[in-house]
Design goal:
60% helix; Glycerol-3-phosphate (1)-acyltransferase; eight-stranded mixed β-sheet; 452 residues
Length: 452
């Protein structure tokens, strides 16, 4: 019972913290049989929460750092989701005995259940995958070699947009299964170390295919801006196509990074982006002229949305603002690494909200009775949802008003930026036509590019 409550809570947390979660490749996840979900690891415990919420299989056990069990409030949650404690050699002087942990892993997998592992070993804030540990490959091969189960490894790409920001977006991509078949077992029995390294390299390639990787964040930002300029505004991409387009741009840039025309284009594009940053504008705001009438209608619609939500949201906003402030403060000030900020925010909220609701329910129950306490608890949850939507509406309204002000007051500067943008669009499309792999199917037609 407690386990199901924890899992339901994790799903609620994931769907609340992120405004949008897109899932691609869920058809690659087998409906039954032993599976190892192997994912990249950019966002600490939030990565595990997302896999639990969206992988489509349950129970899903995880390998986790044994040090996490030292936190008394966290330990019951880890036990409830079936996490297996593993000691990291880097954190202990001398040899580490993980034999009991691995026996537990074998038991989980051989019983036909699923295991979640992050082969990079640690959560990190790099712009690309770091070198994979060999543990995932070793577990998959050794379990299958025991003859009780045939393991499938599912590469999982977790691609975040503003990963630490509340109500941001994430895309999860499940790649094609890596089946540990008889051929893999024969090679493993003949050359254990060599086969483990070979499977780890194969897994690294599969993970690269479901994640975005660039040498540094500056290069990744350049590539994403170039991709936005290239994509026709009239074309709608499914999540999988969106990620595929990003990967093609990464691969194309890395292969042509020394091309003189590419170098000149990058300088021009980064100068354009710097001008946008200085004026507080976004590229999409320059796609077409904004008339005052159209801008006024947009502001009015968002204002009416705010007014409709306001009566429901006020109680929740007043109660949750202190919780949000404390969670944000904890996340920013007490995180040791950039990648655990979102995790600390979430756990602070998990601890504070039930405490707040319980105190209010007890107060109402003591003074007015049980049924009024139940009504108060339900009303708080409804108000909480409305307050989240109200905050989103407020942010949208503020952005709209600031954008209208800038676009209507900057005049000649906006006209010059639009001309620069049009020139960059022509250049990136010409570069893409020259450098693109002719064997790859095109994502856009000539008709897409011809529409304004």
């Amino acid at each position: 019972m407690f386990q199901r409550m924890i899992i339901s809570l994790i799903r609620i947390i994931a769907n609340t913290f992120f405004r949008r979660i897109d899932v691609v490749g869920i058809e690659n996840v087998p409906a039954d049989g032993p599976v190892i979900f192997a994912g990249n690891h950019p966002n600490a415990l939030m990565d595990g929460f997302l896999l639990i919420a969206k992988c489509g299989r349950w129970p899903l056990h995880f390998m986790a750092n044994a040090k996490l069990w030292e936190y008394r409030l966290l330990a019951p949650v880890l036990d409830a989701i079936g996490a297996v404690a593993v000691c990291r050699r880097e954190e202990h002087a001398g040899e580490v005995d993980n034999s009991q942990a691995f026996e537990k892993l074998y038991e989980v997998i051989e019983s036909g259940n699923c295991m979640g592992i992050f082969p990079e070993g640690i959560s990190h804030a790099e712009s690309q995958l770091i070198k994979l540990k060999t543990g995932t490959a070793r577990i998959a091969l050794s379990v299958t070699a025991r003859g009780k189960a045939k393991v499938k490894i599912i590469p999982c790409g977790l691609n975040y947009i503003n990963r630490h920001r509340f109500r941001s977006q994430v895309l999860i991509e499940f790649g094609e299964p890596i089946v540990i078949d008889d051929q893999w077992v024969r090679e493993y029995n003949q050359d254990e170390q060599g086969t483990v390294r070979k499977l780890t390299a194969h897994l690294a390639e599969a993970l690269t295919n479901v994640t975005l990787n660039a040498p540094d964040w500056r290069t990744l930002r350049f590539i994403q801006t170039a991709r936005r300029l290239y994509k026709p505004a009239s074309a709608d991409l499914r999540p999988g196509e969106y990620i595929e387009l990003n990967r093609r741009f990464v691969d194309g840039y890395l292969q042509a990074a020394d091309d003189p025309e590419m170098l000149a284009f990058r300088d021009e594009l980064e100068n354009y982006q710097a001008r946008l940053d200085m004026l507080g504008l976004k590229d999409f705001q320059l796609r077409q002229p904004v008339t005052l009438g159209r801008a006024f209608r947009k502001v009015m619609v968002r204002s009416l949305t705010m007014l409709a939500l306001l009566p429901l949201a006020i109680p929740g906003a007043l109660l949750h603002l202190p919780v949000g402030w404390i969670a944000a403060t904890v996340g920013e000030r007490f995180s040791y690494e950039m990648d655990d900020i979102a995790t600390l925010k979430v756990f602070s909220t998990i601890l504070l909200l039930p405490l707040l609701y319980t105190i209010i329910a007890i107060f109402v129950g003591v003074n007015f009775g049980f049924w009024w306490a139940l009504i108060a608890a339900i009303a708080l949850m409804v108000s909480s949802f409305a307050s989240v939507r109200l905050i989103e509406a407020e942010v949208s309204l503020l952005v709209s008003m600031l954008s209208v002000l800038r676009l209507t007051r900057l005049g000649s500067e906006i006209d010059d930026l639009r001309a620069t943008r049009a020139m960059l669009v022509r250049k990136i499309r010409a570069l893409t036509n020259r450098l693109a792999d002719p064997d790859l199917p095109r994502l856009f037609t000539d008709k897409d590019f011809s529409q304004t």
